[in-house]
Amino acid sequence: MSTLLKATDIVSGYLNRPVLHGVSLELAAGEVLAFIGPNGHGKTTLLRTLSGFVPFRSGEFEFDGQRLEKASVHDRVGAGLVHVPQGDQLFAEMSVEENLLMGSYLLRDGGEINRRLDQVFTLFPKLKDRRGQMANGLSGGERRMVGIGRGLMADAKLLMLDEPSLGLAPLLIEQIYEALGALRAEGRSFLVVEENPSRLLNFADRFSLMDAGHIVWSGNAQEARASSNILKTYLGGH
């Protein structure tokens, strides 16, 4: 598989407080890489750095053959790097369809926009039923679907998902991961941070454990299951 994303020695943070300390990662096209670890140790900052919301202090970042560490958020989205943030961050006073269309703001081809919209409605039939409903009236699960759908409208080559199951009931989590599994089967690439990483054991190809802004362990799902410390501490095993 060809390399889609490669980041080397990333250092980034907020104001005078560094959060990431020399983080390196690589992701192949069609692969799913999951980041696990304690809250407040750099996982969300990593996604925000890759998507351009937190600036690189040092390090290199290549995505789909382009150097992007100095690129704008706009240019990164145009390259196919799409971040679905924790909490979804929808436009509350806009409808479901309007929120989805915001994901296609770089497109000018109406036919292609409609094709992508149909794909999202096929993946999440609930959203088709609620296409005219205001986002502030949606359930948590429906909001999560809209957030993911908006990322798909941007025709993402890589979807970076920050805790897609956060705060959802088990049935809704199953629905979200069923949809994500369908996208994975189509060859979609993901970088995922998850509140309950045990759900990723049947979804992710590889895991990286982040602690205090460093990657301290990496391995595949089989290796994660075989590591008693990883299972007990981060994957909910016993």
- E-strand count: 10
Strand numbers in spatial order across the main sheet: 6-7-8-3-9-10
How much beta, percentage-wise? Answer: 25-35%
Question: What is the straight-line distance between the termini?
Answer: 35 Å
Q: pLDDT below 50 for ≥5 consecutive residues: which ranges? A: none
User: Helix coverage percent of residues?
Assistant: 25-40%
Describe this structure as you would to a colleague.
The protein is α/β, with parallel strands linked by helices. The protein folds into 2 domains: 3-80 and 157-234, Rossmann fold (3-Layer(aba) Sandwich), CATH 3.40.50.300; 92-154, no CATH class. It has 9 helices and 10 strands. The protein has a 6-stranded mixed sheet with strand order 6-7-8-3-9-10, with helices on both faces. The two termini are 35 Å apart.
Topology:
Elements: E1 3-14, E2 17-28, E3 32-36, H1 43-51, E4 56-63, E5 66-67, H2 73-78, E6 81-84, H3 96-102, H4 110-123, H5 125-129, H6 140-153, E7 158-162, H7 170-185, E8 189-193, E9 206-211, E10 214-220, H8 221-226, H9 228-234
Parallel strand pairs: 3-8, 3-9, 6-7, 7-8
Antiparallel strand pairs: 1-2, 1-4, 4-5, 9-10
Helix pairs in contact: 3-6, 4-6
Would you summarize the structure shown here?
The chain is α/β, with parallel strands linked by helices and 238 residues long. It has helices at residues 43-51, 73-78, 96-102, 110-123, 125-129, 140-153, 170-185, 221-226, 228-234, and strands spanning 3-14, 17-28, 32-36, 56-63, 66-67, 81-84, 158-162, 189-193, 206-211, 214-220. The chain starts with a strand and ends with a helix.
